[in-house]
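User:
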Amino acid sequence: MGLTEDHPGKMVLSQLVDSVKAISELPECRNVFRKMYGNFVRRVKLLSPLFEELRDSDKELGEEAVEAFESLGEALHSAMELIKSVNLGSKLYQALERDKVIMRFHQMTVKIEAALSKIPYKNFDMSEEVCEQIELVHAQFKRAKERMDSPDSQLEMDLVIALRDKDPDIAIIKRLSEKLHLRTINDLKKESLAFHELVIASGGDLGDQFEQMQALFKKLNDYVVTENPEVDSFERDKGTIKHRSPVIPDDFRCPISLELMKDPVIVSTGQTYERSCIQKWLDAGHKTCPKTQQTLLHTAITPNYVLKSLIALWCESNGVELPKKQGNKSKKPGCSVSDCDRASIDSLLEKLAKGSSDEQRAAAGELRLLAKRNADNRVCIADAGAIPLLVELLSSPDPRTQEHAVTALLNLSINESNKGAIVIAGAIHDIVEVLKHGSMEARENAAATLFSLSVVDENKVQIGAAGAIPSLIKLLCEGTPRGKKDAATAIFNLSIYQGNKARAVRAGIVTPLMRLLKDAGSGMVDEALAILAILASHQEGKVAIAQADAIPILVEVIRTGFPRNRENAAAVLWSLCTGDLQQLKLARELGAEEALQELSENGTDRAKRKAGNVLELLQRIDDPSSP
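Assistant: Predicted structure:
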């Protein structure tokens, strides 16, 4: 017989689920504590699967567990109050009180970690995925407890100068405006309201900080009005702004067309482009980032919703009409639906659910193409309920139907919301089965789908636990050039999670990576080095790479490779040589010192650091007195 909802264990778990949900739904933090706030919310969200799984279980929690969860509930309630005050309060006051806020964040982290430590996990019958995820989040809270976030020295210096000098350098006020997210007249209006609420709440007793906040507010207001006259004029007279031609900020222009972006997307290098422009570039067969010329690890593009929202706000503030997407008003026979004809989608789903094998294959193929064409289609198809039906077809005995289904899910997963829906539908296990046993095209697209889903941190744990990594390694060895790239990017992303590094090493990843690294004609040197660099940070990875006789090829890459590859090679070399005198001596015998000296002078910033670290180790060989 199941436990009733008013059982103490059920009640406390339901309260914890609600607390996590409330914290997750708070708006994005836009002040100097943005990173600290974001890290905390991300960690708390990872606790949700534990609470939900135990709440939905029929097993009774012991008294020890109930008390531990009640303690955690109290900690989360306190955390909720803190992050709400940090997020919604005066940004100037938060900046002036930053040391106290940092201390409160640290105390909150200590309290939550202590509560997590009391939970008797071994008494629970949890799935492997949840166990690994809780281990991950508990380790994150432990690390956060052991190191308090250091103050922003640049911010401290800027605040001191801004308060001290009557007319501080404009660059200082600009930095403060950016860091405090007080960039527009509207931002300053909100800050003014928060300031007044703070004064009322404190009974007018803010001491010296009242005058400091007033002084900073005036200087920031003068800067914003001077630097953004269009915005100021817009607030005073919305009717006249339409006749102006404001300068479009460089960050809002597509690097290819130099036009204002209407649908910004991000490529694997982190650069943002207008969707149609970068898609044409990729469709033409280019494999590099147009702006940086770096090789793209993959050709997936991700919507940049934050920038899109900022562009929309800028357009509204400046009276600029945001370019609209081309509609498809007159559809011709055989033309694709651009705004997603819901009746047509429903008809295809009916065939997926109840049609013959041929009808299922054709419907899955059509959905695959529709999902590829545009973002609106991806939303419409998912909203119509296609995802669970496509997941069922992953087990189809017909190879072509299976290919269509996994590729349709790949295309749908480009939408961030759809990623969650695909995982909730139980797709990961079936996608891994396709990766193991499907046709080559299906395997390659399964690998690409797993990469897309693994962008969400929680999914990395689940995908690794489902046994994906050995099959990805097999595809890395025997796939087409595109398949090898898909496998490599998926392995790289999954290996960001510590537990998956060990899985990859134990599955034999190092041998094929070394083979690809030594074969310049494979076109996979970049990917192989990137994965080796991330695996070398794990002890098992370090041992396996050392046993593969990696030093000679690493030294050669440092000497003659491309900048990013030299950087990764130096990172791997540093990991291998740290604490291993034999590897260090071998590196010196192979002439690493000269190559590293050159890299320390001419490499990327990270390459210079790694090269300097290895050079320091090399110098200690002949100096026994060095620590």
